[in-house]
Amino acid sequence: MLKRNKFAICVFSLVTVLTISACGRNDEEASPKEHTNTEERTTNNEVSNGHSGDHSGMDHSGSGEVPEGLKEAENPKYKVGSKAIITHGHMEGMKGAEATIAGAYDTTVYSISYTPTTGGERVENHKWVVHEEIADAGEAPFKEGDEVKVNASHMEGMEGAAAEIDSVQEMTVYMVDFTTADGQKVKNHLWVTETELSHAE
Asked: What pLDDT sits at residue 177?
């Protein structure tokens, strides 16, 4: 009788250990799947915003200083001190905000793709960097596909990054002050192009 009880206890212990081990493996197998789903949601969000890479590191506000050599626009569509509506926002809460024009400049503006110097995913089609924010920029504008070095620091890991020019446009760009939809006040934001603004009513 005693031998039977010992045998039963041993069998019960063995079954318990095997069950716990199986649960542990199931948890480990579930973790990567959950991680994959998170990555898929992140990718979907990035695609819907027209960007890839995390833009949470973007500095909405600026010091008000502009790159050396950047020329003020002589006759901008939106005068400094006037109000305008941001029709195409690069960041969440920006689109539809009323902006005050803090500066207007005539230049060549680029959208770029680059890998942050701090590591992480490549940022695709970042808007905007002006000609004067590119290292070793001469008089002539860069062309689509050109490889350049960025001197701007709009986002963490941008300054000093190697980038590819995605698009090239010559137009007036603006430094603007605005308040996001969630109440965040942004000062001296760089940059908004003329085509991304409309007159405030």
From this structure: 97
**DSSP label at 159?**
T
CB-based burial label for 31 (10 Å; 0-12, 13-18, 19+): exposed
What 8-state DSSP symbol labels residue 142? P
Radius of gyration of the chain, Cα coordinates, nearest whole angstrom: 27
Tokens of 82: 């006037």
pLDDT tens sequence across 56-93: 445 566 667 899 999 999 999 999 999 999 999 888 88
Is 45 strand, coil or helix? helix
CA 69 vs. chain centroid, Å, equals: 26
pTM, to two decimals: 0.70
According to CATH, the topology of domain 71-199 is: SH3 type barrels. (2.30.30)
pLDDT in tens, 12-23: 554 444 444 444
Cα 162-107-154 angle, rounded to 5 deg: 45
Q: How many residues does the chain have?
A: 201
Q: Which helix (H) or strand (E) holds 8?
A: helix 2-48
Q: How far apart are CA 193 and CA 181, in angstroms?
A: 20
pLDDT value at residue 105: 98
